[in-house]
Amino acid sequence: MEAASQPVRGSLACPHCGQVERVQHVPAVYRNGLGMYQGSSSAIGVAGGHVAYGYAAHGGVTISGIASALSPAPSPRKAGWLLGASLFFVPPFVLMVWIALNMTRHGSPAAVTAAQKGGYAFGTWLIPVFFLLPVVLFLGAFIRRVRRNSLVLRGQHAALAVWNQGWYCDRCGGAFFPAGTPAPVPTGQLLHLGAFRHAVWSAGGYAHVS
Fold first, then answer.
1. How far apart are CA 87 and CA 8, in angstroms?
2. 202/147 Cα distance (integer angstroms)
3. How many Å is the Cα radius of gyration of the chain?
4. How far apart are CA 76 and CA 210, in angstroms?
5. Region of residue 180 (phi > 0: left; psi between -120 and 50: alpha; otherwise: beta)
6. For residues 169 and 8, what is the distance between their CA atoms, to the nearest angstrom?
7. Dist CA 27 CA 167 (whole Å)
8. Residue 133 within a domain
9. CA distance to 76, 99, 190, 200, per residue, from 89 (Å)
10. Percent of the residues in the chain that have a pLDDT greater than 70, as a whole number
11. Most buried of 14, 107, 156, 195 (most Cβ within 10 A)?
12. Cα 13 to Cα 139: distance, rounded to the nearest angstrom
């Protein structure tokens, strides 16, 4: 950052360089850093004496480094596939439990002593436990991700209220909250983008969320 110069009057002057010419509202900087792209591809080939033609379209959203650093909230993470992965292991788990119950009920013909019978029962239930582990792990990850997304969603209103008070100085590469900002944030000082985002995310209660 450049050395601080004599500030000019006005609450929107950068607290570091004292200028207003290159100060922009944070939401505007964020929106300007978002973009969309679209593309397509095609191919022609011959197979089995027939001409085949293929076409594919693709698109997405791009985000600049500054816009990413000024994001008012972390992006939601997909959770549905975790639930699907957990349910995938339920049928084999149920099947293994049914088999283990039948084997335990009939017992092993070779097991005579109590230790042998106990070892047989223990080994019988190892496979059901093996299939139970991914069910529990994927289901636990699904619940944690849903809670994480819900936490961010609940706190976005408060975070956006603070985020909308922020200003970005393109000359100094930092953001600040003007003096008198009606929010419990550091005012009148230039913050690096990580500190600014932490202040916004803290207002939403999800500063610890990655």
1. 63
2. 17
3. 29
4. 10
5. left
6. 14
7. 8
8. yes
9. 26, 16, 52, 40
10. 75
11. 14
12. 51
The answer as to whether 29 is a domain residue is yes
Token pair recorded at residue 132: 């139970």
- Residues of the domain holding 172: 23-43+59-204
Other CB atoms within a 10 A radius of the CB of residue 58 amount to: 9
| Structure tokens given for 14 | 């950068």
Q: Is residue 14 part of a domain?
A: no
Tens of pLDDT, residue by residue over 43-55, are 666 655 665 666 6
Sheet strands (E) in 20-99: 23-25, 34-47, 50-63
Helix (H) or strand (E) holding 155, with range, is helix 126-163
3-state secondary structure 184-206: CCCCCCCECHHHHHHHHHHHHCC
Q: Distance between CA atoms of 10 and 20, rounded to whole angstroms?
A: 8
Would you state the pLDDT for residue 73? 93
Of 126, 98, 120, the residue nearest 107 (C-alpha): 120
Structure tokens at 20: 């207003």
pLDDT in tens, 127-181: 899 999 999 999 999 999 999 999 999 999 999 999 999 999 999 999 999 988 8
Q: For residue 177, tell me if it sits in a domain.
A: yes
CA gap 160, 30 in Å, rounded: 12
Q: Which amino acid is at 206?
A: Y
User: Is residue 104 within 8 Å of residue 66, measured between CB atoms?
Assistant: no
Q: Which of 141, 167, 169, 153 is nearest to 205 (CA)?
A: 153
pTM for this prediction: 0.71
